[in-house]
Amino acid sequence: MDDQSQNQKQPKKPASKLTGFLVRLIATLVVLAAGVSLVALVAFRDRLNMDSVKRWFHYRTLTLSDSGQAEFFEYDGDLDDTFAVLDGDLLVCSRNAISLYSGSGTRYISQPVSMEHPVVNTNGSLAAAYDAGGSSLYILGQRALVWSAEELEPILSARLNRNGQLTVVTQASGYRGMVTVYSAAYEPVMSVNVSSAFVMDAALSDDGHTLAILTVGQAGGAFASKLELYTMDYASGGYQPDVSCSLGGGVVLDMRHTASAVWTVGDQGLAVTGRDGQSAQADWSGRYLRRYTLNGDGFALALLGRYRAGSQVELWVVDAKGQHRTMELNEQVMSIAAAGRYFAVLTSDRLDIYTDDLELYSSLKGTRGARTVLLMPDGSAILVSAEGAGFYVP
Fold first, then answer.
1. Distance (Å, whole) CA 137 – CA 157
2. What does the alpha-carbon distance between residue 126 and residue 306 come to, in Å, rounded to a whole number?
3. 10 Å Cβ neighbour count for 41?
4. Could you report the per-residue pLDDT of 120-162, keeping only the tens digit for each?
5. CB-based contacts of 126: which residues, under 8 Å, 6+ apart?
6. How many Cα atoms are found within 13 Å in the side-chain-facing hemisphere of 149?
7. How confident is residue 199, by pLDDT bands cut at 50, 70 and 90?
8. Nearest by Cα to 61 from 4, 25, 102
């Protein structure tokens, strides 16, 4: 019986060896898989990121071609209208209507309006559409009309910050401009009447702590732009600027107020002004500003030419310190756009999307006659032509 018991126990030794072999094999395969994954992440680090995951979830129901394009759909309007991205949808604002389309062309908003000079400002999830020089203003979000006002004093500008707070500049009797700040519930919480110079624009910081007012007047008999910064003290009735600084004699075309600085772009250059009034500047005087955008995350774009016409241009990517990197372009540029860490350049037959370090992220040949490109923070784009609009997902 003892011999039989020993014979029955002997086969367990090969099984133990086999188990050890399998463990070593699995460990080796795991190490190899980890190594391959690491190499793939390094090689494709610009494409395998959270943005690609966001795109997959957002557009998983959208039918795309092998190139990443969705079918073009017709929109109500033409290329002279104002286009913007609103929470991943296409917003089209014309004199007669405000429309919102999904990537598949489904229209969620069809708001009749009457505006002579429609302008749109968005913060990503909300949009303010207003009639420049008119009296009507509309706030849109969550694929619906959120709030509207149609009897305001003539509107000069309207801007939303990241928190949904609204800043409106209007004409005011007896003053050279009035700035009103509204809460996220669109109740007025602050008003500043300016009499020393004409108010051109204003914006509340993304954190809601600082109001920036842009004015234009004369200094020493010469044209001058000035930026004033106010601390938001909601309990106070009187407001005086904490900081006032000159932006020079150039014409300021646009502004953006982040949580830490005010970005202003003009015909002669760009300035990034901090809370202390000190500005970092990029000077392009002597060049012609063709196109620009302030919508990048920590950078701005300026398309500059040495001549008024021609396809030989430079694209400046300007950071918060006023430093710029340059791309030479020898093609006719139809449109540029920026969002998040990406920017896009649209030519007559190609769309190129870059990261903010000027690395090519994605390229699309054959843009179906698109003349306008809009970009989203995840790197996806909307192409708009006279015949329709379509989404592109890298």
1. 10
2. 37
3. 11
4. 999 999 999 999 999 999 999 999 999 999 999 999 999 999 9
5. 86, 139, 140, 141, 146, 160, 164
6. 18
7. very high
8. 102
Tell me phi and psi for residue 170, to 5 degrees: -130, 165
Tokens 């790197």 — which residue?
A: 379
Give CB contacts under 8 A, 24+ apart, made by 390-393: 390/69, 390/70, 390/71, 390/72, 390/73, 391/59, 391/62, 391/69, 391/70, 391/103, 392/68, 392/69, 392/70, 392/351, 392/364, 393/55, 393/59, 393/62, 393/64, 393/68, 393/70
CA-derived radius of gyration, the chain: 27
Residue-wise pLDDT tens digits, 173-191: 989 999 999 999 999 999 9
Look at residue 232 and give its three-state secondary structure.
coil
Q: Is 158 helix (H, G, I), strand (E, B) or coil?
A: strand
Q: What are the tokens at 31? A: 């190490």
Task: At 69, list the tokens.
Answer: 């394009």
SS3 assignment for 273-335: EECCCCEEEEECCCCEEEEEECCECCEEEEEEECCCCCCCEEEEEEECCCCEEEEEECCCEEE
Cβ neighbours of residue 137 under 8 Å, at least 6 residues apart? 128, 129, 130, 131, 148, 149, 150, 152, 155, 158, 168
User: Which of 198, 200, 230, 226 is closest to 212 using CA atoms?
Assistant: 230
Tokens of 98: 């405000």
Element (H, E) at 244: strand 243-248
Residues of 18-37 as b/e, b for ≥16 C-beta within 10 angstroms? eeeeeeeeeeeeeeeeeeee
Q: Is 124 left (phi over 0), alpha (psi -120 to 50) or beta?
A: left
- Look at residue 41 in the predicted model and tell me its pLDDT: 41
Taking CA atoms, 96 is separated from 91, 115, 150, in Å, by 14, 7, 14
- pTM equals 0.86
Q: How far is CA 42 from CA 34, 35, 37, 49, 245, in A?
A: 12, 11, 9, 11, 45
Residue 25 has pLDDT above 80, yes or no: no
User: In degrees rounded to 5, what are phi and psi of residue 352?
Assistant: -115, 130
